[in-house]
Amino acid sequence: MCHLSGNCKELDVELAGVAGMLHDIAIYAENCPHKDHAQRSAVLAKSILEESKLFKEDEIIAITSAIATHSDKMSRTDSRFAEMLKDSDVLQHYLYNPNIELQEKDRYRLYYLLEDLKKMHQKGEAS
C-alpha cells in the first residue's frame, strides 16, 4: 500500500515502502500493546535503519517520524510522508477484511482518502 500511496503523492517510493514494512514492527518483535506500538516501532525502526547504514539521517527522520505518528488518524496536519503512511495503514485495514468495521477515526480518514483517489482517477481520465 505504501508504494502505491507514495507514488500517488509523489513521494520517495522506496522510503514509503520501508516505512510501511516497519510501522508495526513493535507489535510483532516485542508483542507491544497496540496503544503503545507507534512510538515503540519508531524506536526499533530507527535502530534498524541506523545499523543498516543504507539511509541518510534525514531519511531516517522522515521514516521514524511517520511511524511515530501513524496511529493518530484524526490528525491530517503531519508531514506529507506521515499522512501517506496513515492513509496506507487505513487502506490496508479496509482492504484486508472489508467485513470488519473500521473505527470512527479510520472511517473518517478512509472517506477522504477514497475521495482523493477518485479525484486522481477522474483527473487521469480527463488527460
Outline of the structure:
With 127 residues, the chain is mainly α.
What do you see in this structure?
This protein has 127 residues and is mainly α. 72% of the residues lie in helices and 0% in strands. It has seven helices and no strands. The protein has helices at residues 2-8, 13-22, 25-30, 37-52, 57-69, 80-96, 104-126. Helix 4 (37-52) packs antiparallel against helix 5 (57-69) and helix 6 (80-96) packs across helix 7. The chain is globular.
Q: Decide which structural class fits the backbone.
A: mainly alpha
Number of distinct beta strands: 0
Question: N-to-C SSE series?
Answer: HHHHHHH
Strand content range: under 5%
Choose one word for the global shape. Answer: globular
Number of helices: 7
N-to-C terminal Cα separation, in Å? 25 Å
- Uncertain runs are none
Output the radius of gyration.
Answer: 15 Å
What's the SSE blueprint?
Elements (H helix, E strand, L loop, with lengths): L1 H7 L4 H10 L2 H6 L6 H16 L4 H13 L10 H17 L7 H23 L1
